[in-house]
Queue: 3 jobs
Job 1
Amino acid sequence: MVCMTLMGCSPEYNWRVTAVADGSVTAIFPDKPEVAQRSLDFSGHSIQFFLTAAHVDDAVFAVGYAPWPDEWAHDDQARHDLAKAIIRSLYQNLGVAPPNVLPALGKRFTVEGKSQKGAARLEAKVWLLPHGLVEGLVTAPVRAYPKPEADEFFGSLGAAR
């Protein structure tokens, strides 16, 4: 089904299955993804954050992954606090105040705001694994948001087999 759907996409999209999040999640990316790594300071901890992303025109398709620090092995509160902070940052990055009630973990949500290039839309989903946090996101200018391709991308996010 996915193959038949993908064949109908624009030639600009060269879909490929990629393992992310230390191999525990798979995603289909619309072009060859690149991986960047940086350190996030959160609640007195340095957390490694890996972003696997592919760009097509002005759209970015990405999966972020942050493995838990060893001391968070059994700290559900710290894990949820990080997830909430990540969700809030997605709103703030587009100049939008986060809502009082944040989207539930594992649920896709949309943010519309402004980027350096103008009006922008971001769709994201943030969830927790036993060993880390994962976020999937697609962002693009509102006028060129690739909704069918974003649906394919989000539909592909799942546990690696």
Note: Residues 76-92 form the longest helix (17 residues).
Job 2
Amino acid sequence: MSGLHSCLGNRFNSTYNCLLLKQLLNASPFYYWWVIIMKIKVELDDRDFLEVETDGSGLNVSMLGCTEFMEMMQKMKRHFGVDIRKWPLPEGTDHSSILLREMVLKLRGEWIFPISENLVCKCRAISARVIDQVVIAGAHTTDSVTKQTSASSACGTCRPDVQKIIDYRIHSKLG
């Protein structure tokens, strides 16, 4: 038997695709083994990215970024091994820590982005993705997000959602 199943993750600037590739019958007809291919990408647009693909037997990691990002990845690999799922969550608020924290949480199945709607600021038509990208890049207050995106500069009703994104990015799973 074989099947194909696809599922999407809950973050606007990354891909999180699970493909149920095939169902393999074990020696007994009552046991099935599933081969799952998962591809996850986290990124700061036009700057840094980390992509992990797994087929159940290991992780294939691709990355590109600034010196800070690449050095952090190499340091984590040296200290904690190649399996990113087992790495501790970075505690920093810099873009490298934020991206790596997202990847670790996604690989563990613990990533739940706080905003489910694509459009956060309806007055200015600003998406969650745009807001999230400026938060990753360093806008860690609602005022700085407003200055860089114009989100919540009209009626302000989206300001709590902007704050939720900031809080999740800066404090997710840190305590």
Note: Helices lie at 67-80, 95-108, 128-136, 142-149, 159-171.
Job 3
Amino acid sequence: MTAATIFESTVPWNPKRPDTVIISCVDGRWRAHIQEFTVNYLKADLHADFLAVPGGIEPLTLFDLVPKDFNFFRRRLESLIEAHGTKRIVAIAHQDCAWYKERRLFSFKLDLRERQVADLKKVAARLRETLPEITVETYFARLEGKDPERVVFEPV
């Protein structure tokens, strides 16, 4: 016995595996802006793989500090790369990230943007070293202007 259908998507099924993985934070306030940027500016497919966790790429910085978090994220990323034939990784951090705000090493006050940019650079270097056949791009999203604020993206 099959369950009754409650919704049918109008989007046609595309069986082609995407060749791009977008890595970002789960913060829903930024999702539509990230999708618009990756599709319209970076020309990634609308159905690019999307790997989102709080803090975005932050788990990939934790090799020495929290190997369990690092390995959890790394295994999933490696699985996508292997199964989908990934050729491009796009990592995006954003302003006002709650994960970075709450994550404190000791009692140091850190400039969040500076830390996020440093993490993007660190992870990009490690990915380029371990996956030389894959293009790695990093960006930082921030707010600009007033009434209304706009989301802008900068390369890192």
Note: Helices lie at 28-41, 67-84, 98-102, 112-130.
